[in-house]
């Protein structure tokens, strides 16, 4: 099981061959081939390594990211690390340790890097934690105020079978991405979205994608493409609301019985509260979409059973709360929330699990314990925390003080992929005394650490796994021995537990296999108490997979609330859909007031560049995972990440297909291989995230490999969420006329063998 599917392969005990997707997957994806081709890549970390300056001079960030590493024995590495952990906890306490590990490291439930690390640090006394995530952190802060839990919204999403039967018009703001539907947290066994979309179209559903990228959708959807100016979707949605109101198309009965605050919102739409009607003519100037198109779209939405889908990408931008809030508001104005095939969803096409029926329970997982440390940060504020300890920031109605972190411990995840303004992040990573990383590969995060411990890949360890909301639960026996001297995270923490005399608080004296059987058996008993029977552990371990029952294959999001809003209140302060939120309004945030509004992106004012950069998810890998794999490598041009541009913009710059270009703004620059295509809106350049950051040694703001996060701004979506704004930036593109600098990140850094 991987985050992008289940694989089948032959093994000689050391490596895999004949890799294919699982025989039960109707639509396996090519990125599965990154796994075997990466396992023994030269960039694989073979031995424990300590940054030379840290080893010689002791803790401190001077030289981090530039110095060679000294390869040492496991005993020496673990002795050094345990001593450093003692020092930091004795000197600073738990507020001096940041437990990073932003998920995604393993599809398995036991060897989940974040769970392993957090459990271990909790045994030491706790750690500074992060809340939210980069995927939908802005929505995660907003939606509980507006319509309830984000987790429930996605897990309870109207299933694709219901959409096929009932939806007439499927409007997707931000695309309905084929590539994002290939992956899901924890994995996806059956890639079914393509066939579901095709069957819905054949049944008469009409798909409309509102995005600057025409092919960010399944070809089978036959989508109608509307391409607004990036960052202007909130203006377009407000104009649709204006038409629904002006033409009497809003469902006033539903708004009266199921929502609060519509009167305040519609006063703003009409312009009576601020003097500016949000008319189609007004929106057309901002969005560059014709007035007629806006009016026609609003009328079609009101005349059809309409599903309004807002992709996760829509909230990864400046003021990203607004288009998500407006998606809910438009669905409420149509009065179709809770109807089969109608209403609102946040995430179709953003992850493979959205649209699957909810399971009766989640599969077993490794318990993290309780974190006694009270300090935390919004996940996207790590650079701010390291650079400005003691500063106070607003966050979702509270004020947070950044702690003084002396040690960062990262297991799984790659902040030099998912964070923004990487030159700034690199400066921030100089601040702690010590950075510890468990990694499989020499990513930029590993290169900017002090203690680097080689970890096993998923195929090298025993585990079990099921994706989020995926009903298929798989045993995951190790397929090969570990590469080099790699160890499981569990084994590493077990060895540290002994040195730190934690009295088996972490391991409880169990081996990996004993933990798997223990967790499974407890889970099996819980299921049995609810009337569901699954095999015993031995039978499960020897099976291909088992299936977790689902509650309702024909589930409809918010159906119970629609039918009985009194006894099925939403988890919002009022129990209703909050078009106006009194609570958000009470926070007094100018960048996120009490109802959805149009707020011009700050980037439009701050960066004097003509092209809109869209930095979306890649087709050839998951985020930055296995960027050295065969599928990922095949997608590059001249060894660099491809950038796509409209022919009109390429001609204006005398650029040709296949050129190496430099993309730049005031924050930084990167090289990319150019693809010219009319699938990109004029005025837009698109480059996927995830190329391993490969900075020029003399200029960390210049990435030779094509990581767009040297260009994106490290600033929050708003004071409410403090979420990332990674999706958009303004840039210029020009021909790179000098010799192509070498790519170095796919090779190890300089290593000195000092094992005894």
Largest sheet: 7 strands, mixed
- How many extended strands? 31
Radius of gyration: 25 Å
How far is the first residue's CA from the last residue's CA? 38 Å
**Largest sheet, spatial ordering of strands:** 5-16-17-18-3-4-31
Structural class: alpha/beta
Give the DSSP E fraction (strand runs of 2 or more residues).
15-25%
Mean pLDDT: 96
Q: Tally the helices.
A: 26
- Low-confidence runs of at least 5 consecutive residues: none
- The gross shape turns out to be globular
Tell me roughly what share of residues is in helical segments: 25-40%
Protein model, in words:
By secondary structure, the protein is of the alpha/beta class. It contains 26 helices and 31 strands. The strands form eight sheets. It has a seven-stranded mixed beta sheet. The longest helix is centred in the first third of the chain and has 19 residues, at 74-92.
